[in-house]
Amino acid sequence: xxxxxxxxxxxxxxxLTIDGREVTVPEGxxxxxxxxxxxxxxxxxxxxxxxxxxxxCRMCLVEIEGRKGTPASCTTPVEAGMVVQTQTQRLAKLRxxxxxxxxxxxxxxxxxxxANNDCELQDTAAExxxxxxxxxxxxxxHLGTKPDLSNPYFLFAPDKCIVCSRCVRACDxxxxxxxxTVDGRGFASAISAGTKADDFLSSECVSCGACVQxxxxxALMEKSVxxxxxxxxxxxxxxxxxxxxxxxxxx
Length: 251
Ligand code: FES
Prior knowledge:
The chain is an alpha+beta fold. The protein has six helices and ten strands.
């Protein structure tokens, strides 16, 4: 299943029930996309409209009648007769718990962060109702990491990264460059431009900006945005050169 690309024309139709509403979608549609078709909204961090779903952030968990556990809706294909719940108390608690873990390892500098009010992590934390973080902050994995400033156009701040791998998949699927990867496991996992010893400038990166566009936090950010703030106007294009778009600033 692919949250990003709708199933092809001519796919058979499947009817299921989501939060009490009947919805009919093409076979192969993810439960997340079907929920949106039904007018609902499921929190998500690692799925987008333009890259293949991956199921890593665990924010989009749902309950499906007759199934154990809480599968990720972005990677679960619809089935005929499926009965799905997306907004139960149990799911709300699970999502808050997952978000709490993300925030326990994330700098608490939202008010001074360049992405303040334009950050999907911040928005999703508010959406799931996170108010407190119970875990000690002293051992946070991000402490002491340094930003990679080697690329002339954008920076990479590992402390802001939630390892959702949207940048890695955008690099692969949007640009076809395959310059990025996830290095390490667990707390040691981090986005890398090859190996941990490599920086962006020495990697295969072509500075297209697809990774910056895909980042849900300010881990990957244009240097101009860091220095001057968000542009007044931006245009998203799919032109052959970069596929990211152009921004405009008033003089
Ligand atoms: Fe489904 Fe991240 S949006 S697991």
